[in-house]
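Example record used in the benchmark description.
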Amino acid sequence: MPERLVMSSLQEAASAADVSPPIDLLEGRYYEEVQVGQRFIAPAVTITESMITTACGLFQDLALLHRDHRIAAENGFRGPIAPGALTLGACIAPLALVIGKKTATHLTDEITYRAPVYAGDTLDIEIVAVRREGKSRFGLIEYATHVTNQDGQKVADILTKMGHAYAPKETA
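Model output (structure tokens):
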């Protein structure tokens, strides 16, 4: 593309940006804005060998199942498996897209691992609001996160309790 056309396109985009209000991608939802049964589909995440190596170092997870192909095979796995903390972290991180700046607190995570996660697996993540309870300082919402791999095999189920800020009271 000629340089003049590129510059013209960049200038047009900059002009449009000047008149368009910015979009805050992490604005989130207040307690009142999330209803039981509401579903959120998160962007898929592909677990890499580098992520597994980094997680093992970060969490000081020395289990040979995460880094030794022979030991993993001897224990019935097709290769080293991702540490549970990596799987959990990758799968609950999308809650930030649901809650955003409206987070009051992150209370608990309960995970059930259904199948191993390997380097190269792409995880599909669905988050469902399953329970709401008003508290004095914040509203509690429980989310069930269902995680499947690229073959449709369920690899994890997670129940997370989050505290959401309440919507501001209207002032008259």
